[in-house]
Amino acid sequence: MRRIVILLTAALLEFVLVASPASAQVVPVDPGSTAAGRPIWGTGQNLPPLTANTPYFVGPGFATEVEAYYDSGKALRQQAEIATAAFDWVKRWIANECGGNPRSCKATVVFDVDETLLSNYEFYKGTDFTFDQEGWNAFNESCRSTPIVPVRRLYTRLRTAGIRVVIMTGRAETTRPWTQACLEQHGITGWDRLILRAPDETGLSADAYKSGERAALQRDGYRIVASIGDQVSDMSSGSLRGGFLLPNAMYLIP
Ligand SMILES: [Mg+2]
Predict the structure, then answer these.
(1) Top-ranked range on mean pLDDT: pick from 65-69, 202-206, 212-216
(2) What is the mean pLDDT of residues 46-69?
(3) Ligand 1 mean position, distance from CA 99 (Å)
(4) Is 149 part of a structural domain of the chain?
(5) Does any domain span residue 125?
(6) 236 C-alpha to center of ligand 1: Å?
(7) How far, in Å, from the CA of 121 to the mean position of ligand 1?
(8) How far is the CA of 229 from the centre of ligand 1 (A)?
(9) Residue 164, domain member (yes or no)
(10) Span from the CA of 171 to the centroid of ligand 1 (angstroms)
(11) Ligand 1 centroid, distance to 115 Cα (angstroms)
(12) Distance 169 CA to ligand 1 centre (A)
């Protein structure tokens, strides 16, 4: 417990001390061996330690710092920086590996949902940055999340460029009706696949579930160029070329 508090303090001080950059600060981040040798880029603003193997929520002790991070627009700027870096990287990869034609090599980008395409900041703010299952269900069933605009734009740009887009979420398969409706309501449409956690995947870690589903996609002929998410577990344990890690100052799910 003591160790986690110290690490969180160091992380959140960084929110306060690091000036908002005018230029892109997307840098390689190192989540340890789970990256399976694949490069991951981010802004370094996620809650450390990225190698943590148990989930946690930041809680009320740092609410002021977390709210400042989101309400000041800094989170949005960093989300935009990562979305731009991801687009440029995918474009370069397709130019080099697919002769510029993404359809010819079935180039695919995988997107996570929560804190990637959709923001649940208002929900977590209302729970003092803890988790409440009943409140969470109500929040999502009534689609009170908001789109993360730079990531939605990235999604649309990639899709328009002929790249396959797959949405993969740790939400349960039973939430498909309102998850799908909420994505569509926010203008996120036209995916190749929308993958939710099947009943037999309930007991798996996010890392095991997502890497397993990416491996299955690759067996189906999808060539996964990049995964875009707010958790290392969106891009760990292989079956992709590279990962782009969006900031999440609220919780960690390994
Ligand atoms: Mg997420």
Answers:
(1) 212-216
(2) 79
(3) 32
(4) yes
(5) no
(6) 13
(7) 12
(8) 6
(9) yes
(10) 10
(11) 5
(12) 7
Q: Give the largest CA-CA distance in the chain.
A: 52
Residue-number span of the structural domain to which 100 is assigned: 23-53+74-119+145-248
Classify 28 as helix, strand or coil: strand
Give the distance (Å) from ligand 1 centre to CA of residue 93: 24
Q: Is the pTM of this model over 0.90?
A: no
Query: What distance in angstroms lies between residue 221's CA and the mean position of ligand 1's atoms?
Result: 25
Contact 146, 118 (CB under 8 A): yes
From residue 113, alpha-carbon distances to 96, 183, 249 in Å are 29, 9, 16
35 C-alpha vs ligand 1 centroid, how far in Å? Answer: 17
In the prediction, which pLDDT does 9 show?
33
Distance, CA 215 to ligand 1 centroid (Å)? 19
Distance 251 CA to ligand 1 centre (A): 9
141-154 per-position pLDDT tens digit: 999 999 999 999 99
Q: How far apart are CA 19 and CA 39, in angstroms?
A: 26
Q: What pLDDT score was predicted for residue 35?
A: 64
In a domain, 61, yes or no: no
Backbone φ/ψ region at 36: left (φ over 0), alpha (ψ -120 to 50), beta: left
Q: Tell me the percentage of the chain whose pLDDT exceeds 70.
A: 83
Dist. CA 14 → ligand 1 center (Å): 22
**How close is the Cα of 116 to the center of ligand 1, in Å?**
6
Residue range 92-104, pLDDT digits in tens: 999 999 998 999 9
What CATH number is attached to the domain comprising 32?
3.40.50.1000
- In the chain, the number of structural domains is 1
The more confidently predicted of residues 78 and 9 is: 78
Q: Is 244 helix (H, G, I), strand (E, B) or coil?
A: strand
Mean pLDDT of all residues in 4-25: 35
Cβ-count burial 66-99 (b if 16+ within 10 Å, e if not): bebbbeeebbebbbbbbbebbbebbbebbeeebe
